[in-house]
Structure formats: structure tokens, C-alpha cells
Write a structure and sequence with these properties.
heterodimer, A: 463 residues, Beta-Lactamase, Heat Shock Protein 90, five-stranded antiparallel sheet, B: 217 residues, alpha/beta, Rossmann fold, Arc Repressor Mutant, subunit A, four-stranded antiparallel sheet, 8 helices, 11 strands, globular
Chain lengths: 463, 217
Amino acid sequence: MLNISSIKKFLLIAIISLISLVWGISAALNFHESQEQVEELFDAELAQMGRILQTVIAASLKQDSQTVTPRLNYLDEQLLSKVFGHEEYDDFGHKYEKKLAFQMWNSQGELFFENHSSLPQEFSLVQRGYQTLLQNDLNWRSFTLQDEALGFWIRVAQREDVRTELTNEIAWNTTWPTLVIVPFLIIVLGWIIQRGLEPLRTISSELKGRSYQNLSQLNKADYPLELKRMVAELNNLFLRVSEASERERRFTADAAHELRTPLAIAKVHLQNVKQISDSAQITDFVDKALLGIERLIHMVKQLLILSRLDAGQDAEVSKDICVNDVCNELIHEVCQNLGFDASCAKLQSHEECTWHTNETLLRILIRNLLDNACRYASVNTLVECILSKEKMVIQNVCPRMSEDALAHILERFKRGKTNQQGSGLGLSICQQICKQNAYQLTIANRKGETVGIEVTINITADQ
Amino acid sequence: MRILLVEDDELLADGIVTSLSLSGFNADVVYCGEHALHALSCEQFDLCVLDIGLPGISGFQVVQKIRESNNAIPVLMLTARDQITDKVKGLDKGADDYLLKPFDVEELKARIRALVRRAHGESHAELKVGDIHILPDAHQVFRGEVEIKLSPKEFSVLNEMMIHRGRVLSKDQLTELIYGWSEDLDSNAIEVHVHHLRKKIGAGVIETIRGVGYKIT
């Protein structure tokens, strides 16, 4: 099957090639046919001129006498020279006037008149009808006839090169208008093809301008008959994807419900036990069980977030968000949740940074990164969040990570230190959010004297 | 304080009821929306804790029907649905607050107290009438600077009368507010509690309106 990378290009090349080919062949045939017709016409004229000459000469000879060697009177010679002369046409003539030469022999084969000395004079070469004669490197087209009554011979001839020149000129004059039309035809064709493909471009623009969550149907009425089927199939696809997405959303919602409710049951009952217990040992056990529940709750929350991100469900309209405010708020929240002092993390920014993004996802992203940085930071060290309009760098002080560990850090369920309560999903969620927003996420050991990890979110790729 | 818990999961409902009872709340539970609407139309509650995913009519429909019947009872939606759209939908239908499972019971109780307080036009957690003030969160009652020790039921009776101060509460209303469906009680239980309260906080605070009920002013 022909590989078509561009319908427009394909149609233009194919149609223009075809038209050029057909037009070219047609022009060539036309040219050739015109040449033949003109040649025929010239031959006919040659014969006609021969017969006129025969009539004139016969009349002139009759007035004279039935001499063996006829003589033309002076006036006749002048007239013939004028009519059949080989000079250039004058101001009242036409450029296509033939430069004719003629010869006359009597019945004994003696040449008694010619207006041009370039033709062969031998009577032996004389034969009735058309001939092509070569004399002094010039080709002549001749027509010869004999007057039946008086027996004299007349040869009327034209130079082939003159005939060819005239023939080509006439043939070309009939051909060039056809060739001149071709470029205009190509331009018009190009416009027609462009116009014909406009609905395809409209569909393309419509789909290109859509967000990946927009699975609304295309309006079939807006498109021509030939595209209606394709639009219908696209709409079917949108419907199927939409239904699959809805099923996924429902599944996640149901999973959220089915996972959260048992956790709530366990948590409530454990808290009740803790409330009524007088035993320090039981309270200790319950606290540990509650800690386990909290870890499970955290993991479920992260799994649900990841599942929704994978399914593209957490989409909301992007807006301008002051990231400084979000960072300050989340630093406070994360420190509080981890039971750390608020001074263990700090925002550094010399300007107000507004990012155009999805606030919910941005909060999840920054919260997860801060949470990780704080959890894995060495005791009594500072987690710094350095913010600018183009990027955010979160860095902590902690033991160096091997290149191998860094290479796998974004993998799901990959955890750093095992005594931490993370789910191993936080950074995977961050990666997914960055992917959705076309941010660049890099995690590396800090450069310089301070040993630690540095996470950079570069948003310039997208904004 | 009487609370109607609408939760289809019996294990969770049992845990919440126990937790609320331990903190002096009187919680009754129903397991579907239809029963919740029936209970709310027949009896008086201070607050409704409502799950969204219920068999039969959903929590959204229940809260909508509650508001359509011009019942202004505070409704706290308790659900496992964590999507913003669900929260917005619940609040738009008429819920007053929203708590996501799994939750901390202390947070649940605090939200319940805050909602009831707001429903009675109070902005502070402390209820005060004359020199008597109570701290519902801490379950403490003071007359002047002196703390008065009350039993959970006595505290509940005083708390209800302080919440509805200036209004006469009949014995039946107080019974409904203090006791759940599952509790057996004597017909004169309220009178006994009022009697004990008068002895502990002093006479003249709780006024008897003959043939009608009691009030604090």
C-alpha cells in the first residue's frame, strides 16, 4: 500500500503530475498533428499554385503560338516573379507568404523558365507529384505536373527549412496557450485541494486544542459527508474511552470507600479501647496498632492519588497560584504532621513566584517532596525550599545516596530507610504530577560541601 | 446532646456510638436513609451524622429531603468519598460539615460540638448562664470558680438546658435528648437528674414550669 505522509502533498503531486503528463502528451500530439496538417496544407497550396501557374502559362502560350520552345512575354515574367518571387514579403504582405520557386520545361524537356536557380535543372529528375529534392545543401519540397494539352512541365517548389520554420511556428502557436494554462491550473487545483481538506484541518485543530480529559463528542453536522463516518468513529472512540475512564473513576471511588471504611472501623475501635483502658501496656499496644493503621491509611491515600493521576482524574482548571504562600503553608503543615519544629524547614525566595498550574496537584507535589526531605533529613538540620519563577529546589542534609539508589528512587514502592513510615509512593506521585505538567524533576546528591539530597522541579519546559 | 448516626456499616456505627457515648453524647443509629428520615420526622435530635453511601436513598438525597422539610438540624457528612466534587455536592445539598473516613474520633466530637454550638448561635465552646458555666469539650461544670462534679447524665441534662436556655424543655424532650433508643429508663429519670442537679449547683438555677417542663434563664 502506498505510504501517504500528507494527503495534501499526495493529491497535489499526483494530480499535478497526472495533469502535466496528460497535458504534455496532449500538447506534443497537438503540436505534431498541427505540423502534419500545416504540411498537408502547404502541399495542397503547392499543388494549387502549380495548377494556377499551369493555367496562366497555358493561356500565355496559347496567345503566343504552338512553338516547341515557348517563350513568356516580359509582363508575364514580371507578374510571375512578383507572385512567386522569393524575396521577403513587403509591407502589405504576410510573413507566411511562401517563397516559391518554379521551373518550366517544354515537352522535349528543355527548361525554358525558372525564377530560382537553386533547384536542380535536370529533366531526368522530373516526375509528377510531390518530391523532396536536395540541391546545394538545401532541401526543397516540390510538386510537378504536366500540361496535358501543351505538354510542358511545371515544377513548383518550396524550401523545406522555410516550410519547417513556418510549420513549427504555426504548430507552436496552436500549442502554447495549452501549456500556459497549466501553471494557472496547478494554482487553482492547489487551492481546491486546500479548500477540500479544510474539514480535516478543522478536526485536527479541534482535537489538538483539547485537553486529554476532554472526551466530548464532535458535532457530525459540522463536517462533510465523507468525514462523517470518520467523525462517527472518533465519537465512538471518545465514548468508549469516556466509559472506560468513568469505570476507572468509579472503581477508584469504590476502592476508596472499601478501603477507607475498614480502616475507619479499626481506628475508631482502637481509639475507644485507648479511651477506656486503664492499663499502660494496653495503651502502648493500642498506640502501636494505631500507628500501623496510620501507615496503612497513608499508603491507601497515596495509592488512590496515584491511581487517579494514572487515570487522569485529578484534573482541574489551571490558574495562577502564588507558590510562596503554598510552600509556607505546606512547610508548616508537614512539620506539624511529622511532629517537627516549624524551624526545621524554611522557604527561601527573593520574589513572589506565580505559577500557572493545577493547585491540587501542586500541593500534593510540594507536600510529598517536603515530607520526604524532612523525614530523611539528619537530626537538627535545615530543609531548604529555594523558590524562583522558573524552578523550585528542595534540599536537605542527609547521608549521600549511591547512584544506583538514585536511579531507582522514582520507582513505585521504593523506600529509602526502612524505619521511615513512607509508602514508597510519594516520589512516584511527584514524578507523575511532573509528567502531567511537563515539569522536569531531578533528584541528585547536593554539590559542594554540604552532603544531602537536592530535588529540583524545573517548570520552564512548559511555561 | 442527642445525635442521630446514619451509617450502614454496623461495625463502624457501633464504634462511633460507643465513642460518642463515652464522651457523654447520646447517639442513636439507623442503617439506611429511609429510617433516618423517619427518625428525624418523629423525634428531636441535636445533630445528624450522615454517611453518603447508604443502601436505598443516598446520603445526598437524605440531606436534601431534610432541608426540603425545613428541618435545620446540623448535618455532618461522614464518608469515604474524598473527591472535591463529592464534598461540594454534599455541602450544596445542605450538609454543614464534611469528615472523611478514616477519621480521628476526637476530631469527630470536636466538629459535632462546633456544629451544635453554631446551631444555637454560640461562637465559644463555653456555655454560660449567670455564674454557671460549662465546658462541653472537657465535660466540666463551674459555679463561679468552683468546679462541680456531675454524673454523665446530669451533665447532659444541664448541657441541654444551657444550650436551650430561655426555652422550656419538657420531660419528654429532655428524655429524647438525653437517652437513646437502646437505653431503658424509669419514667421519672429526668426528675431524679434535675433533683440531683439542683442539689449540686444550687436551687433557683433550674426553674420548673408546672405542667410543661424545665428551663434555665
